[in-house]
């Protein structure tokens, strides 16, 4: 076995960059990223959890993706994810309504029934049942488009919400390029309705960040947030406060990823003021926004900027709140992956493994089907101090 096979992915990027005699700036330019992004990847502060990004880096370094991953085969489950993403891509790309080519023998679903089906898809996603959501969404997208074509008034909201949940799922599956198509459709369908636009903008922020456009994401999220912001926060409607606060959180996460730590903290503080007017235990516009959600975002920002100690210290307090248990399984497990990464960066693989196992207990698909979870599992499992249960899980999933 080559000695580089034992290195974390980021260290392998640095190794092969050196072999190719490329500076961090040159590699960043060829990838369309910032030098800071490359530096964080190589130091392990940022995780490479998207197959498309791994392919791009491998192409620039002139090596096989398997070499970059430190193994000879694709990660287990990759083909299933690719197939699922492709089915959704096809559903988003048919344009049967625009071309006036409705599929035969497919009755139009009433708007009320479509709303129920859309709500079921959101529930499936929020319970982190990603394979089931993949199965639901292609047909739901087609049904939503047909219903909206026949009933623009009644079908508008479920159409936008269908595109939103589709974009959210595609981001989870490491396919921001296809998610961009879904969120662009959502923004177009929502145009003219300030609440619908704000709701769709939440997923727009996620897609922009996952596409490596953190600076653009921050600017767009701030514009969307202040457009929906109430004149006086203390008297704001909880639903609008939830949208505005969530957009500020998205802007803060983008600022942290872009290296603008001061702005990130200020935006989290602003979102916290709005969260106080909403309270925990609500899910306005499928945001899960409230004081606990903002505190989780504050911890994620700390981890993003490399302050693992602050992230870990805050984490130990926040999970004891009632608000923690009221958040969706998807929200909690996704956050736990972020905090497990912070523990790993703090050279604490034991607690990183413990947190990952907790995430797997809450939402198995976050580890088994989400590229970010699988990649972190592989990193932690390589450490000799990792929990035995975790190494067994990594072996079972073929990521060890």
Automatic annotation (TrEMBL):
**Protein name (Swiss-Prot/TrEMBL):** Transcriptional regulator, contains XRE-family HTH domain
Q: Recite the lineage of the species.
A: Bacteria, Bacillati, Actinomycetota, Actinomycetes, Micromonosporales
Q: Which GO terms describe its molecular function?
A: DNA binding
User: What domain of life does the UniProt record list for this protein's source?
Assistant: Bacteria
| SUPFAM superfamilies assigned | lambda repressor-like DNA-binding domains
**Taking every annotated instance into account, which residue ranges of this chain make up the domain HTH cro/C1-type?**
13-68
Q: List, alphabetically, the CDD domains matched.
A: HTH_XRE
Give a Pfam family name: HTH_31
Q: What is the species of this protein?
A: Micromonospora echinospora
């Amino acid at each position: 076995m080559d000695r580089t096979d034992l290195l974390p992915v980021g260290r392998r990027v640095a190794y092969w960059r050196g072999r190719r005699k490329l500076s961090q700036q040159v590699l960043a330019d060829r990838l369309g990223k910032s030098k800071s992004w490359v530096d964080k990847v190589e130091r392990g502060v940022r995780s490479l959890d998207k197959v498309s990004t791994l392919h791009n880096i491998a192409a620039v370094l002139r090596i096989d993706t398997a070499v970059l991953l430190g193994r000879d085969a694709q990660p287990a489950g990759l083909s299933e994810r690719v197939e699922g993403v492709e089915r959704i891509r096809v559903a988003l790309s048919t344009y049967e309504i625009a071309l006036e080519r409705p599929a035969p023998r497919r009755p139009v679903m009433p708007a009320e029934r479509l709303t129920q089906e859309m709500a079921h898809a959101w529930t499936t996603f929020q319970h982190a049942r990603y394979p089931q959501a993949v199965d639901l969404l292609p047909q739901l997208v087609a049904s939503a488009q047909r219903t909206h074509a026949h009933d623009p008034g009644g079908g508008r909201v479920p159409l936008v919400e269908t595109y939103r949940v589709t974009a959210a799922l595609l981001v989870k599956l490491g396919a921001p390029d296809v998610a961009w198509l879904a969120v662009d459709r959502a923004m177009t369908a929502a145009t003219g309705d300030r609440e619908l636009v704000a709701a769709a903008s939440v997923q727009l922020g996620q897609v922009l960040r996952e596409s490596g456009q953190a600076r653009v994401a921050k600017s767009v999220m701030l514009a969307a947030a202040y457009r929906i912001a109430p004149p006086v926060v203390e008297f704001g409607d909880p639903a609008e406060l939830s949208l505005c606060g969530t957009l500020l959180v998205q802007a803060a996460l983008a600022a942290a990823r872009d290296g603008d730590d001061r702005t990130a903290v200020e935006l989290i503080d602003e979102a916290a003021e709005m969260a106080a007017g909403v309270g925990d235990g609500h899910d306005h516009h499928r945001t899960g926004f409230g004081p606990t959600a903002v505190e989780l975002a504050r911890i994620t920002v700390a981890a993003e900027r490399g302050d693992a100690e602050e992230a870990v210290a805050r984490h130990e307090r926040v999970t004891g709140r009632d608000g923690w248990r009221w958040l969706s399984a998807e929200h909690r497990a996704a956050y736990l992956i972020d905090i497990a990464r912070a523990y790993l960066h703090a050279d604490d693989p034991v607690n990183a493994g413990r947190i990952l196992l907790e995430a797997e207990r809450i939402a198995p698909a976050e580890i088994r089907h989400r590229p970010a979870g699988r990649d972190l599992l592989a990193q932690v499992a390589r450490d000799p101090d990792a929990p035995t249960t975790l190494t067994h899980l990594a072996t079972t999933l073929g990521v060890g």
